[in-house]
Design goal:
This protein is an alpha+beta fold and 341 residues long. It is built from seven helices and twelve strands.
Length: 341
């Protein structure tokens, strides 16, 4: 199998700049922006949540003073976005202080608020003391990890005759979608991975070519680790780099809850949808075009909901971002017990 890096050069994909680009509509007050491109994943109910988060962050970053850097953001997904209509992002300053500045961004589509984000920017304080949890151990480097589309292709080729037609079609569509994505993802396969003591222990499945079992169903696990990076040049602007991290942070994130609950194995998934998402940045020195490690762990799920925590590291061991998300994850129950958001 060829390496992920060699495959990247051979594939045609959308650039991350196109995915996050915005039109500035209010050039006097700098508060109103409009999306140019929106993407709805194959299995999603609406626009990819990571793209909405990233575009909202990009809008707020263009309003904020460049001396201040994004350090945290918290958002709620209120309604599914329609990929066929532009999203308008309204940026409002909430507090302009000496060290911290806070902005509110609400996204509207067809006159309705579909998403709300609050973000905070701060001046750097490099003279203050630092602490970081240790980097996870025993993980293979990204060059030894096949891209997701490669893993799925290997599995599909090896099991094509034994899989149901709908599963073959679904895998083929996912492979093509991954090839066209502006973000490359490679499963960091390992046996045991040592995470910081404050986080739940991460014990990944033994090395395998796919997250699917011999029947094409996803494998149950409450933890995951991925190598991720933007395809193409992400540029040097730190604010835009953080928007890219936000885009990446929503890939397969809430899906870890579904895997922990056995959806696709012992249970049939009825509904999966993100409710909220948070990010905290602790480093401005990284390049989203280079491989980053994204570890995920589910501490609790129940009552049709679940929470997942994540950490994003540079490959030289710096913890640059922490993430969390809660989402609706429901088993498909009898019709008389079916509920909606």
């Amino acid at each position: 199998m060829s390496s992920p890096n060699s495959q990247l050069a051979e594939q045609t994909f959308q650039t991350i700049h196109d995915s996050l680009d915005l039109d500035e509509l209010d050039t006097n007050l700098h508060v109103l922006f409009r999306s140019k491109d929106l993407w709805m994943p194959l299995t999603a109910r609406g626009v990819f949540g990571g793209q909405v988060i990233a575009q909202a962050i990009a809008a707020a970053t263009r309003v904020s003073d460049k001396a201040f850097g994004l350090h945290s953001m918290h958002c709620y997904f209120l309604l599914a976005g329609d990929a066929g209509k532009p999203i308008l992002y309204y940026v409002e300053p909430l507090r302009i202080g000496k060290s911290y500045r806070t902005y509110s961004v609400h996204a509207r589509q067809s006159g309705r608020v579909i998403f709300h984000l609050t973000c905070s920017f701060s001046l750097p304080e490099p003279r203050q003391p630092h602490f970081s949890a240790p980097f996870p151990t025993n993980l293979p480097p990204p060059e030894e990890c096949p891209l997701n589309e490669e893993r799925w292709s290997v599995f599909l080729d090896a099991n094509r005759e034994r899989l149901l037609p709908r599963i073959r079609e679904d895998l083929a569509a996912r492979i093509q979608e991954r090839k066209e994505s502006p973000v490359a993802i490679a499963f960091a396969r390992s046996g045991e991975v040592a995470l910081p003591p404050a986080w739940p222990p991460l014990k990944l499945q033994d090395s395998r070519e796919s997250y699917f079992d011999e029947s094409g169903r996803t494998i149950e696990t409450s933890e995951a680790a991925w190598w991720v990076k933007a395809r193409g040049d992400a540029g040097k602007d730190v604010g835009f780099q953080k928007a890219i991290i936000a885009y990446m942070s929503d890939f397969s994130f809430i899906g870890t809850v579904g895997s922990a609950l056995g959806m696709g194995q012992s249970r049939r998934l009825g509904m999966m949808s993100s409710l909220d998402h948070s990010l905290w940045f602790y480093d401005n020195n990284f390049n989203a075009s280079e491989w980053l490690l994204f570890t995920m762990s589910v501490p609790r799920a129940g009552h049709g909901r679940g929470v997942v925590f994540g950490q994003i590291w540079t490959r030289d061991g710096r913890l640059i971002c922490l993430a969390s998300q809660e989402g609706v994850v429901r088993e498909a129950l009898p019709k008389d017990d079916k509920a909606k958001l």
